[in-house]
Amino acid sequence: MAKAKKLPSGQWRTLVYSHTDGNGKRKYESFTADTKKESEYLAAEFAMNKKKSSGKKVMPTFKVAFETYIDSKSNVLSPSTIRGYVQMKSYYNELDNVLLSDINTQLLQSWVNELSKTHAPKTVSNAHGLVVSIMNFFDCKKVTVTLPAAESVTYHIPNDEEIQRIIEYLKENDMELLKAVYLAAFATLRRSEIVGLSANDLDVHNNTIHVHRVRVINKDKVFVDKNTTKTKSSDRYIQIPSFVMDEIKDCQDKVVTISADNITNRFGRMLKKLKIGHFRFHDLRHYSASIMHALGIPDQYIMARGGWSNDKVLKQVYRNVMDDYNKQFVMDTNSHFEKMQHKIQHKK
């Protein structure tokens, strides 16, 4: 039983161990009273009640839980996913010293509101998703909040004329980037898949490539090859146009020898030089999907070729990227009506 100590003020104080916080520091409760007996009684009452509830799990702080969760997933999730989690660390400063057990709707909603002031809805949603995963990992109670409404995604997809200009320029100026553009626009590969593709993945006689490896940057900013792709459906064999195979078949190791970041930077500079409206390198995949869709190819085949696990992205692409084709359809429709009106006027 804890013993009371007399304070300079003449009162008595008894300290009783309460718990160890998420940082490993022991915490005590203090009971001060006018008499030694009363102080010790209050302390004993607290200790007895604490013993009754000792079956309750002591939760770590969010900061400790964050690090524990990432360490536990380091061999399961992709290096780029782990790196993304680490990059979000600064988002949680407001929650870092809060015990997981103390995170409630009011607190979490306040955090969401503050983060939404400076970040896009998708970023807030991703950051909140990690909070939910961490709390589920530690078997915490479910906390429900309202997230900002998702923004409508608008893709700018290049047309055939722009692709032709890009290819003509790269043939004269940047053969490595040309190979990357070929693989994205005509074989639907992602950047990480392009830089992960090696000579052993090429079946030259059948114009086929095996996409099953990615090269990504881990949390320590080191390039690593991982023999898994983004989703299960991303592991695929793709038959490519012969002119693409002719361009990549003579590689000794990696098909494309520049990094994913290098691809992005060089691609952006090239667009500026050609005075082509900005779009992402990744949008070359969407260009390929939109062309296949315009040709009447079934979505199931498009998804298989591009390694999409569902048609969500495809629907967004179809909704936003068919401008050139839609303009022609509108022109054809209006032309028909104009001709009809012209005939009516001539009958009068």
The main β sheet shows up as: 3 strands, antiparallel
Percent of residues in beta strands? 5-15%
**DSSP summary, beta strand count:** 8
CATH architectural category of the largest domain: Orthogonal Bundle
CATH superfamily placement of the largest domain: Intergrase catalytic core
| CATH secondary-structure class of the largest domain | Mainly Alpha
Strand order of the largest sheet: 1-2-3
Give the integer mean of the pLDDT values. Answer: 85
Please bin the fraction of helical residues: 40-55%
Number of domains: 3
- State the distance separating the first and last CA atoms: 111 Å
Give me the secondary-structure category. mainly alpha
Organism: [Clostridium] polysaccharolyticum
Pfam families: Phage_integrase (PF00589)
GO molecular function, one term: DNA binding
InterPro entries: CB, DNA_brk_join_enz, Integrase-like_cat_sf, Integrase_catalytic, Integrase_recombinase_N, Tyrosine_recombinase_XerCD
Topology of helices and strands:
Elements: E1 5-6, E2 12-20, E3 26-33, H1 36-52, H2 62-73, H3 79-87, H4 105-116, H5 121-137, H6 160-173, H7 175-187, H8 191-196, E4 202-203, E5 208-211, E6 214-217, E7 223-226, E8 236-239, H9 242-248, H10 260-274, H11 283-294, H12 299-306, H13 312-320, H14 323-347
Antiparallel strand pairs: 1-2, 2-3, 4-5, 5-8, 6-7
